[in-house]
Design goal:
660 residues, alpha+beta, Glutamine Phosphoribosylpyrophosphate, subunit 1, domain 1, Rossmann fold, 6-stranded antiparallel sheet, 43% helix, AsnB_N, asparagine synthase (glutamine-hydrolyzing) activity, Rossmann-like_a/b/a_fold
Length: 660
Amino acid sequence: MCGITGYWKAGALESSAPQNLAKMTAMLYHRGPDGYGYHLDEAKGLAMGHARLSIIDLETGRQPLFARENKNVLTVNGEFYDYKRIRTNLRLEGFDFTTKSDSEIALPLYQKYGLDFVKHLRGEFAIAMYDEDEERLILVRDRFGVKPLFYHINQGNVFWGSEIKALMVHPEVPRAFDNQAVLHQLMQTMVPGTTAYKDIHALRPGHMLIIQRKGDSLDIKDHKYWDMDFPEEQDRDMGKSAEYHIRRTQEELVEAVEHRLEADVPVGCYLSGGIDSCSMLGLASSMQQSPVQAFTISFDNKDYDEAHIAKEMADRVGSNQEQINLAAGDLYGENYLKTVYHSERTFYNTLGVAKWQMSKKVNECGYRVVVTGEGSDELFGGYPQLKRDMLKYGYQNMEGSGHTQEEVDSYKELMEKSNKLFKGAILSEEHISHPVMDDICGFTPSWIQPWMNTLEIARPLLHNDILDDLKDYDPVAAIAQSFDPKQLKNRHVLDKAQYTWSKTMLECQILNWGGDRVDMANSMESRPAFLDHHVAEMAREIPPHYRIKGNTEKWVLREAMKDILPKVLYEREKFAFMSPPAHTEEKKKNALNELIEEYINEDTLRQSGLFDVGRLKRFISEYQNDKDPVSLVRKDALVNHILGLQILHRQFIEGKELSL
């Protein structure tokens, strides 16, 4: 729920601070349409804003929240689960509460545990808390980065916000692209902690920014408080049976879903044709007394549409289902522009536009909260990229795996055939490697290989000035060097693949234009139960050959959920959920071409200065005449990124549509 923003200056606030803070907070209206709250302390240089979406404690939960005679000030975006039990225990210890909000528990936990308070919070959240006695401000982001939080440091002053657009309306925050980040946008994969914009950073998941006043300046430190931390191979407990891990998966997921159904407003479920969302609906339907409202996307292309399986699941559990049917007109045009605006980054597929349409429908149906299935693939080994690494490297030591080399080879062949549709975007045609990634990980994970191929096409399209600036920059090396080597040392191949994906694509893609940003664009909160850190800490203990067993990805999860899933889904191989690319249908081609004509013409290209006009025009022409399906999938993705950068330039750098 909600949006937070603010700034802390080394000196006193500027005279226009009330107006600046009000503008910053108003930019988050879509995240919090139920009211604004402010705290300004001119002498201390502190300004804190909050835009509220009422989900828990509809009457008294306004923020900022205060404690210790207003010496501790708190704003929160997100949810803390199990808050009633925690609040009761704190009350027994003598702590007082002024609201029934889940957010308020952070204040006494901070008083009790200091900076370790975050270890006692369960949920998805971004926090700004000021401590007057310590002259300290802390910014905190949840363990997986479900909730966004960005910051900018300028001459010792710190600005922050749930979205970048909130920072950019302050006159002291610059509006410019970062050249390195532009290249990363084109290749889809960001360096953790970066954004597309110069000197605007993303607080990394599981991290805390500690800002301490030191006389007339602010001292800023980045502290990691949590990581996935897979066990080293020699320390993994291999003695527990498959049945044990199946049972533990059931126990943790039941608890995680139960917590996420807690709200003072109705809670629904997103429902695709995949195991993840179907598991969420199955569990939620068993817990709730009334039928659970489910929301499903249906595409006008049978190769990409899963709605028929989703309907079978909804019928199985007696759920009320709202199906959103999307065609070309829904995935491009104004909806595309709005999705780019809310995502604040580019995307390779219009699934983000589809998700924006979905959250809009959820809001229109009177719902503000849904439980979702994001995170399952990351924890249980669901993506074909992860399976490819497991089959290529993970069964090299066959002892105890129960699979011969001949069987593994046959699994590889089956997987490549069934995922042929997605080659060029989520799978590369052939194995490629990078020396720095090989050095740090021991191999080049399959998930980054298609984007390395895209990089080779994308880089030459940039303007010569940018190419000159980037001549010594290796984006793949930068990504590899961002990983904590201690978290990769002595880990299994599958652990490494899951870890590196989660540190990059989960946070900057799945949870961005596939999650919070397009959901909160329509004042709708999504709650991914799989990303409960108790579930994650259980899942990391599951042996790799139970996560992916032979050719069966997410084997433990399938077995844990098999009695609530339709048989067709239990037996079905993982299918990537994405929108039909533009090249698959004439109407989509035409809709995309209309955007290209408006945003990728000579005038707009010269205005942005991002691309070489001649080289880009030739690329677009080649794309429009291409007939090779794999090449088209790759170029579809790249065209979306190019188009996204041009749109972002108009919206954020020129600032022409910051009130969209």
